[in-house]
Amino acid sequence: MKKKFIILTAWKNIFRNKRRSLLSISAIAVAVSLVCFMKSYVDGLMENMAKNIFLFQTGHVKISHKDYEKEKKLMPLDLNISGFESDYTEIVNTVSKMSGVYEVLPRIHFASFIDRKDKLKNVLVLALDLQHEKSLNLKKKIIEGRIFEEWTPEKSNRPEIIICKTLAAELGVKCGDKVTMLTRSAEEGLAHMTFYVSGIVSTEVINIDKYYIFMPLITAQYFLKMENAVLEILVLCKTKNIANKIAFMINNFMNLNKDNPYIAESWTVQNDGQYYKILTMGTKIYSLVYLVFLLLASLVIVNTTMMTVFERTKEIGTISAMGMRGKDIILLFFLEAVFLSVIASFIGTFIGGAFSFFFSRAGIDFATLSGGGMDFQISERIFTTFNSSLLVFSFLFGIIVSALCSFFPAKYAAKIEPVIAIRGRM
Amino acid sequence: MSFLLTLAFKNLSRHKKRTIFTTIGISVGIALLIWMDGMLRWADNESKRNLIRYEFGNFVLSKVNFKLDRDNFPLDKLMDFSAVKQIINKAEKEDLFCSPRTGFKVVLNNKRGFGLFYLVFAVDPVRYAKTLYVAKDIVKGKWLSEESMGIVISKNAAKDLDVKIGDTITIETKTKYGSFQSVSVTVEGIFDADDPSVNRNQAFVSYKFSDTFFQTESSASEIVFRSVNEKDEPFLSKMKDFINSIEVKDLVFSTWQELGADFIVLSKTKRAGTKIMIFFLFIITAIGIINTMLMAVFERIPELAMMRALGMKDNFIIFLFLLEATGIGFLGSTLGLFMGFFLNLWGVTKGLDFTGMVKDMDFGYRTGTVFYSEWNPDTMLLAFFFGIFCSVIVSILPAKKAVDITITDALHYQ
Fold this sequence. Notes:
The structure holds 2 protein chains of 2 kinds.
Chain A: H1 2-14, H2 18-58, E1 61-65, H3 89-97, E2 101-116, E3 119-128, E4 142-145, E5 160-164, H4 165-171, E6 178-184, E7 190-201, H5 206-211, E8 212-216, H6 217-223, E9 232-237, H7 243-254, E10 262-266, H8 271-311, H9 313-321, H10 326-362, E11 364-365, H11 366-370, E12 381-382, H12 388-414, H13 418-421
Parallel strand pairs in A: 3-8, 5-7
Antiparallel strand pairs in A: 1-9, 1-10, 2-3, 2-6, 2-9, 4-7, 5-8, 6-7, 11-12
Helix pairs in contact in A: 1-10, 2-8, 2-10, 2-12, 8-10, 8-12, 10-12
Chain B: H1 2-12, H2 16-56, E1 59-63, H3 64-68, H4 81-93, E2 96-110, E3 112-123, H5 125-131, E4 138-141, E5 151-154, H6 155-161, E6 168-174, E7 180-191, H7 196-201, E8 202-206, H8 207-213, E9 222-227, H9 235-245, E10 251-255, H10 256-259, H11 261-299, H12 301-309, H13 314-349, E11 352-353, H14 355-358, E12 370-371, H15 377-402, H16 407-411
Parallel strand pairs in B: 3-8, 5-7
Antiparallel strand pairs in B: 1-9, 1-10, 2-3, 2-6, 2-9, 4-7, 5-8, 6-7, 11-12
Helix pairs in contact in B: 1-13, 2-11, 2-13, 2-15, 11-15, 13-15
């Protein structure tokens, strides 16, 4: 009965000074919507970067030759994976069967010159086996022409490649054009070959689109004189958290062979994974930023509660003289603030959520926003994340922070002596 | 007046704890502002210095169609030797350092693997050492001489290729006439420039070497100019006049701002970021001050009423509170100035070391991985007055509250 009375009074009290209540509500609502949107943006950014790094550079686990990482910048192709008895497929097959493994991607990653119109252009080539590459889904990303066909010396077709769009524009090549590539084979000799461009592709990752060419794995193996071998095998797990476990399992399997020259490393220990790791640590700072935002907004609610306490000193005197206990008075003021913050958080979550939802569909043009020039694996278009946990987080975070802040002024009300308070203002 | 001053000061010392807290709030804001500004200013200026001293000088002269395609360093758009010589003679009379250079896109290779993509500049060793700073940053071996047939590489390249002075590496590139060339060359010197972009991308050979192996015939892709005082004008306009007066056609000047455009964009974005930061700092401190002043007003309602009843004018009371706010602002700003000064002192002498964190990642800034700071007396002064000004401005509303209540009510306010 008494509880109900307090709750009801607290609710009614909100409407006594509508302008002030509105001020507190809007301050917190703005802060909550900002927090909601910022979180969804930062999460979206990190998710995007993780996806690109895992897909193009590190995998969740990367299997390579033990000495490759040391000389990685020089790209030595003789430090490759040729399997233990027959070829690399024995590793691919065994790893695909492990539980928790989603995809196994055998690849060759090499650098090359393109000699075109008296210009020498340095490019990077990613040779891959389309049968395995489901996540990359190259076919869908083609914006002109078609996907390449595999070429081997026995077949009568032409060797084909597809080129990323920014690079294609810089080279001035179109579908059907010929380009001559020059590189160094795994046997350290010079390798020359002319390829036909079968399609132009856009991966939408700024750094990839600028430098990359895609080629069928089997063609590259002939071109580079490394038949039955690949440079690296990327493993994508069902979640990135089990990468260490999977890497351990793969290493155990490979170590069964004497003098195993290969090593499996999870993304957390690879150099290319480090940037992402540092950045994720960096985003933890954002939690602090969220807190500061809300604390700032909460100062308004603290102020409001303080004002109400001062304004109602006389009332407090009366009700406490009539026997209401201190802790109920605290509850009365505290509840008023809680109601305000619930309403505000709800509105804030709604607005912030609406923005996040919109940009999770429409995307944000990151390339123009950042001005470019950064060495990150980020897509041109960033999609904010939008899910229930984001909404729940913003809603609860808003309520908890602002309610906690308003506890202190509420406590102050209970300290007022009835005899003095009853003579209070007005 | 002096009465009001003493009263305001006395009022400030009535609630020492509260005053101290507000003061600390303001001072932290101001100190951070000063320090961040110092650091960003350093990064900005250091980047500009490095762009001028290591990459482009104040301006670069090249053929028009070379400039359009500068990313690829095309070898069919070079200035021939006679033109280069004419221009250099003139420029050196104008108190300009200048040096021709010819860029080649190459792969540096040391026996294994494909190698590293680099940009090799064929330079006039003596002039280049006068014009740009790379020659000053040799850490091992020595800079090129006119007769030398070796190469000078960066410490990054030396580490990646695993070579020492005297070792041989291979350069692979196309010559001026389009034939493919692969030459072995001895490492003569290793440099460690302040500009990370040069460390990552550039290597140097003499013209004698490039004439022998790359068929350059002493023609240059660009001529780099640096003025003695590192100012662009009036040298740029003087040189423009001269270029118009000579026979060579299709020449164009590019300033370092044009060539380092990626950095200029970045620098602008960062500056916008600072403004947002200042805004937030302002809000945080403002709320702190407003709170303090409101508390002070409410606490003193009865005594203010008494003063008003005795005949003090409302404006005086508002003025009194504003004086108090000025006091808080002054204390906070002074403390903040000191803190900012010492933070900056630490920044200027020691600096923040990010080496372990960023490794050789490219952030667009042309600075090393130790972030220093720069003295910024103007920002310090500005922040100091900004602190006082803000605390006065935001206190106007609470002060007005003090004279809102009628005297009779206020007199028996608890």
